[in-house]
Amino acid sequence: MKKLVKQLAAAAASVMIMAVAAPAQELDLSILPADAQEIVQDRLDTRFPPELKSITLNPAAPVGGQPTSITVEISNDAKKTSDETSEVYVLYMANFEMDWQSIKLSSSGNKWTGQLPAFQSGDEVVYSVRAMDSSGNIFIQVPCMVEAENEVMTKEYFAEDCVNSGDLKSCESFLPRGCMMQMALNDSPDENLPAFGRLHDLRIGYDEEFVYVDMVAGAKIEGGSMTPTDIRIYGSLMVNPDVMGGDTSMDAMLKAGGLFAYSPLLKQFESTGYISDCFFGYQRAGAWAVDTKNTTCISRNTNHLIMKTKWSRIESIGANPSGVLQFIPLGVQVTLLDMGAMKFDGRPMDVARWTAAQFTEDTYFQVK
């Protein structure tokens, strides 16, 4: 049984990584179904979001009653990708009232400029740069901490998502929900995807102990079945680009990150001590290891899933001076082809675009 569970975990990890990470020259895409090959190849070719260089405010210390000019230097790395930064916004709120507003910046080369409105003297302002590139990848600053027990972990938060409210259009809003910032979605989802496999809203947030990934599917998140074997796994690959440095190889990516995942069906294997319904998978000594202690998943038997992973688990991967972590949420289905041979097959369901999230407290000022 333990061997079967290990194989299941390895199969899930392999499909997730194949769906988003492996360099084309190291991956035989023919092992995937034909319709999945196109998705995989696209994510391989377009996996480098915009990179922030600098933010300049003028005046540097904003003054009450006067607008503040903002200049953002941000672009895609032309050495890595042909994608170009296509739009940049600044999101902001005053006095932590969570009433977020946005301004669209104008471009001049790699510099994007705009103007924050006049605030009153003493106002506390939090802002975030959000940039999208030509493939739909996102760079987003996560500038404030969530109060999880009062916000994302409440029944109301789960019940009021854009799917349950019946307002799918609101899923497209990139304004933050509290301090949960919207991540990149799949800009061209397969219309034939089953509702449980379609991801309508993705959010990223943090507090002092955890990083939170929030996923909203089009229907109730279920594990699938064991007979026949149809295991549905929801999760997100995470990469620390500081650990990767300039090395964009598959080996560097595996060493620089991991994936956290949720599958209700795997709960029955918890007694093996190897896996559970919620886990963080990572590479150790050239093989996949699974951590079931530092990641928690909450779905409340709904279409809504929040996965939270301890910073200590993420920090163990390596130093992260930039504060940027890259994520790509997705779902996979794993099927058993041959029990005797422990042979599995898998295919991605919905696969988002890449999000580069910078966790920071630097985008704050108090108006003079």
3D architecture notes:
The chain has 2 domains: 2-47 and 145-359, no CATH class; 51-142 and 362-366, Immunoglobulin-like. It has helices spanning 2-20, 34-45, 155-159, 241-244, 250-255, 311-315, and strands spanning 51-58, 68-75, 85-94, 101-104, 106-108, 111-116, 124-133, 138-142, 181-182, 199-206, 210-217, 224-225, 230-239, 257-262, 278-284, 287-291, 295-298, 304-310, 324-338, 343-351, 355-359, 364-366. Strand 15 and strand 16 (287-291) form a beta hairpin. Residues 17-27 have low confidence and may be disordered. The protein is mostly beta strands and 368 residues long. The longest helix has 19 residues, at 2-20. The strands form 3 sheets. Strands 3, 4, 7, 8, 12, 13, 14, 15, 16, 19, 20, 21 and 22 form a 13-stranded mixed beta sheet that branches. The chain has a 5-stranded antiparallel beta sheet with strand order 9-10-11-18-17. Helix content is 14%, strand content 39%.
